[in-house]
Amino acid sequence: MEKRLGKQTVKFSKAVSLLSTAAVAGQKEAEGPLASHFDIIMENAEWGEDTWEKAESKMQKSAVGRALQKAKIDAKDIKYIFAGDLLNQCIGSTFGLMAFDIPLLGVYGACSTMAETMGLAAMSIDGGYSDLSVAVTSSHFCTAERQYRNPLEYGGQRTPTAQWTVTGSGAVVLSEKGNGPYITHFTSGKVVDLGVKDANNMGAAMAPAAADTLAAHFEDTGRSPNFYDLIVSGDLGTVGKSIIVDLMCEKGFEIGENYDDCGCMIFDIEKQDMHAGGSGCGCGAITLCGYIMDRIRNGELKNVLFMGTGALLSPTSTLQGESIPAVAHAVAISAERE
Known about the structure:
By secondary structure, the protein is of the alpha/beta class. It is built from ten helices and 14 strands. α6 (about 200-220) runs parallel beside α7 (about 235-250).
């Protein structure tokens, strides 16, 4: 069977089943509209650890542990963990997951990491290299602020286009066996850079890459936007969400009716004063692993296209005056086997 569709999409020949998912969320996320869909809620930013970075590692360890528990799978049976986060050298993943004693394949896709790890984990199963793989990612508001912007003590004013980095970790157990839902396609994205330099406007920087991947998915698969009950991006926020709808219109695709963004869904933006919404690896991860997967399992959604969106900047590139490249990856999820 030909697994390659077009330039950027693969169609899996095996039924790659999502055995289980788990979502760990922070306090502010638990005050939002999706709180009832999270497995574990942290009582504070430190979560019993000495540093925020150690707390983020604990988040990943807890998310994977809960996902394995829900799947009734022992860690020793997992062949690979595909994981990443926003911290330098992905220390949230490496320190958090080494206790599982499972081969770790580190992934950095910025905030697109949930979709990228899921796609790669599905490829490991479809290729016959694994029968059980895990995909996981995380972000933490305090660790991200410390690394990318200013110390929290600085108390800088947030701009209207700024987004709030979600404190959360999502984990998925994938298997060649199971009753679904299933990952059916993976569309990998290209790096796109239209010259946006404002690190407080990630939505504008990421939206062109998201539109590029979304258009590639439709062109490669021959599907139209209305094939999906829900098309959801990871963290474009209110600004990026508006931009991608316009960009897709220019490309000949209408996505307004069944499209949403996790950054707009995870918080009550007005009530919680979130400016342009949520962001971070954890934004798409816990929205997918909690709320969206619950809706699929409850029969409310049959076909979902989840697209992780990532801004590939660093403190170094920002200080050197570089623009913000971005990338987006998409996984198609179906409640039924094709």
